[in-house]
């Protein structure tokens, strides 16, 4: 099975920012379009303006507050179910990339 669980699909472009949780980037993320790689999220957070995509380092419920908000806002949201797959994305931090959140996404096609 693929390590990626797409909770809100989309193809979005932005600068990749890596953080432990949303509080660290809240404020930084508003200046330009961003794709956030977050190690942890509760699923109850609101999505800051400027965020176009979220990749979370653990699974999240499809009906979580965050997933519903992402779908409403057109923000791509992907949960990663394997720590190694999530770790492989860290090299993209700071780069402008396209997040292709679609069913069957792989490491090569995601970012």
Commentary on this structure:
There is one protein chain. The chain is globular and about 35 Å long. About 20% of the residues lie in helices and about 35% in strands. It has a six-stranded mixed sheet with strand order 1-5-4-3-2-6. Strand 2, helix 1 and strand 3 form a beta-alpha-beta unit. The chain contains four helices and six strands, in the order E-E-H-E-E-H-E-H-E-H. By secondary structure, the chain is α/β, with parallel strands linked by helices. The mean pLDDT is about 90.
- Helix percent band: 10-25%
The rough form would be described as globular
Spatial order of the strands forming the largest sheet: 1-5-4-3-2-6
Largest sheet: 6 strands, mixed
Poorly predicted spans: none
Radius of gyration: 12 Å
End-to-end gap: 18 Å
Q: What order do the helices and strands come in, and which of them pair?
A:
Elements: E1 4-8, E2 10-19, H1 22-25, E3 34-38, E4 51-56, H2 65-73, E5 76-80, H3 83-87, E6 96-101, H4 107-110
Parallel strand pairs: 2-3, 3-4, 4-5
Antiparallel strand pairs: 1-5, 2-6
């Amino acid at each position: 099975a693929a390590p990626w669980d797409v909770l809100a699909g989309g193809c979005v472009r932005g600068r990749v920012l890596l953080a432990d949780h949303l509080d660290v980037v809240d404020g930084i993320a508003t200046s330009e379009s961003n794709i956030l790689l977050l190690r942890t999220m509760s699923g109850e957070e609101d999505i800051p303006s400027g965020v176009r995509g979220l990749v979370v380092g653990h699974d999240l419920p499809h009906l979580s507050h965050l997933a519903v908000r992402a779908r409403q806002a057109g923000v791509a949201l992907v949960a990663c179910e394997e720590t190694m797959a999530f770790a492989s994305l860290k090299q993209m931090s700071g780069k402008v990339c396209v997040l292709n959140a679609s069913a069957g996404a792989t490491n090569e096609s995601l970012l």
